Amino acid sequence: SDRDLLALRTTRRALLALGVTEARVQTHAVGTWHAQALPAAADLVVGALHEGAGTAAVAAEYRGLVRAIAPGGRALLASSSTAATRLLDVTLPAGLKVTRTRHRGTSFLQLARSA
Q1: Residues near 89 by Cβ (< 8 Å), separated by ≥ 6?
Q2: What is the pLDDT of residues 36-94, one digit of tens each?
């Protein structure tokens, strides 16, 4: 949506203002995460998962997002608490640490891949 694109532009400007070189900043609006959505080279992935597609689809998107994280990279993911609980049962590759924070019915998952 237009809000998503505006958020991407704002995030890009913020990263550049913080001193990240332009060559290191790439933003992608991906409607659905899948294996080919992004190369496994993202230092930071930020996303949201919605349950409307069903449990199997959300888990597939989650696995696709995980594949996009570069060694030493991180992902921040927002979802409903119900979806997050289900996602924590999804088998993930070794070398990935997942932490969860809850706030008013929303869960935030931080995924960190070891270097």
Answers
A1: none
A2: 555 667 888 887 777 776 778 778 878 878 888 889 999 888 888 888 888 888 878 78
